[in-house]
Amino acid sequence: MIKNKLNTKINCVTCAVAHICLARDLNKTEQAQLNELIKMVSIIKVGHHLYHQRQKMRYIFALHSGCCKEYCLDHQGNEKISNFYFPGDLIGLDSLPTELYSFSLIALKDSKLCMIPYEKFFQLLQEAPTLLRRFLHINSFKLQSQRDIPVVTNAKRRLAAFLLNIFYRAQQPQKLLLHMQLPMSQSDIGIFLGLAHETVNRILHFFHKDDVIQLTNKGICLTDFERLKAIAGVDKLHNKQAG
Amino acid sequence: MIKNKLNTKINCVTCAVAHICLARDLNKTEQAQLNELIKMVSIIKVGHHLYHQRQKMRYIFALHSGCCKEYCLDHQGNEKISNFYFPGDLIGLDSLPTELYSFSLIALKDSKLCMIPYEKFFQLLQEAPTLLRRFLHINSFKLQSQRDIPVVTNAKRRLAAFLLNIFYRAQQPQKLLLHMQLPMSQSDIGIFLGLAHETVNRILHFFHKDDVIQLTNKGICLTDFERLKAIAGVDKLHNKQAG
DNA sequence: CGCCGCGTTGAGATATTTCAAAAACTGTGG
DNA sequence: CCACAGTTTTTGAAATATCTCAACGCGGCG
After folding, report:
1. Chain B residues with CB-CB distance to A93 below 8 A
2. How do A90-91 and A59-73 pair as beta strands?
3. What is the pLDDT of residues A188-212, one digit of tens each?
4. Where are the alpha helices (DSSP H) in B146-243?
């Protein structure tokens, strides 16, 4: 079911995204315990699935590199995108009660994911208080940040908030990232935000003409950060946490 | 800060909503431990606040009876409603990382809330595995169900999904509830769903004319459940869980 | 080479908002 | 119990945002 497992595990101590992932805040002992749990890494090529909705959930995942899209199909076959994931994000947290994945997960770029066996992880949570606290914080943060993209009925604002969110979450430590190639299609953005893909396209060009962003071939550049925030109506910055 | 504390605590064993609250699944010992934790009940009159955003978070709450609205004001003073709460729901779960309430909470009806001291609760989670699992499930369920109201750009569908959601969550055990007085104003619904309140009103009347619901004075009655579900485009039922 | 997904653009159709105003209701104080 | 003020609901009409449909170009890929 989960293919392309790799026995080379990624070390939490040296991992580039540990500071926004589960390992954050842990002491040496707990870090070692967590490390011990993660025996395998899953490697997914762009366009391939990690799992499908309703499959048995045995692992939760930590995205180490790449980018993934979480979605499901309704009974009419329409795609509904529930989230995009970036390095440091935990995946599968919404599947605990039923132990069936609620959504399907597909790679938008070649991706590596740490496989965290759920039952063992649950055991460890009871032994490692800092890990437990960290995990609860991540859940809590996700609950809060799902409200970051305004429901409000205004396409420009939603799209601006989306861009800011994407850029924050794709940041690397050290260097400020203002230019990136969006990993998802404009159509995906439309589905995620509830907009027609033509509207997404038109607004992106509107932002471009307005010098808020710059559209290059296959890339996007935030040229006027402050104005984008103003459009999005954001006061607090989305801090860079698991989402 | 948290006013109107009452020393009469509510007993989880006899509580009418225990089956959808934290106490669910717990064995006698754990139930007793949880019970021990909850020393006080907060009583809030309609229109009064339980807490405001950015106040120090010392308690999470379980809504025992009544109905509450969670909201915040953006920098322009616009209200943004993040959630409505019904009996059995846990409140404050999104405030863990900062230990500051992310939102303000106001009663839409006279309400009673069990006060769960957060730090003690955190300790207990480490000792009571079933409670921990239950708590993680609630978090997980909330993450999943925040995606229940479709983002999709269609007011009728959103409102239909909203009504279904509200009715499911307001159900009492034993008797099927098809008629209720909505605890929030149409304006609140509009803010929550990102619609003008006039639109909410017009669509409610449209549903009424279409015999999907019946609008009585201050009440609403679901007369064609199946069609409402069809409009909402719901396949799975929102099961009745903490949300 | 041809196909297919993606981005782009235009024009008309439609849903929703906005503004304005009135009606209905709620709670308060006299 | 009534009058009043304030909120909520209701309705209409015009303005606008967004969608839908249609068409085309481009680039990657088998």
Report:
1. 139-140, 143
2. antiparallel
3. 999 999 999 999 999 999 999 999 9
4. 155-170, 186-193, 197-209, 225-232
What is the distance in angstroms measured between the alpha-carbon CA of B3 and the sugar C1' of D7? 26
Counting residues of chain B whose pLDDT is more than 90, the rounded percentage is 73
Provide φ and ψ at A68, rounded to 5°.
-130, 155
CA–CA separation, A87 and A169 (whole Å): 8
Helix (H) or strand (E) holding A167: helix A155-170
For A146-166, the DSSP string reads: TTSS--SS-HHHHHHHHHHHH
The C-alpha atoms of residue B207 and residue B194 are separated, in whole angstroms, by 19
Please answer yes or no on whether A94 and B143 come within 8 Å at the CB atom: yes
Nucleotides of D under 7 A from a protein CB: 7-13, 17-22
CA distance A167 to A153: 22
Strands A79-85 and A179-180: unpaired
| Nearest-angstrom CA–CA distance, B29 and A116 | 30
Residue of B98, B124, B125, B136 to mutate for A, most A C-beta atoms under 10 A: B136
Please tell me the distance from the alpha carbon of residue A36 to that of residue A120, in angstroms, as a whole number: 10
pTM above 0.90, yes or no: yes
Asked whether the beta carbons of B95 and B24 are under 8 A apart, the reply is no
**B27-43 tens-digit pLDDT:** 999 999 999 999 899 99
The DSSP secondary-structure symbol of A32 reads H
C-alpha A18/C-alpha A1 separation (Å) is: 27
Would you say the C-beta of A198 is within 7 Å of strand C? yes
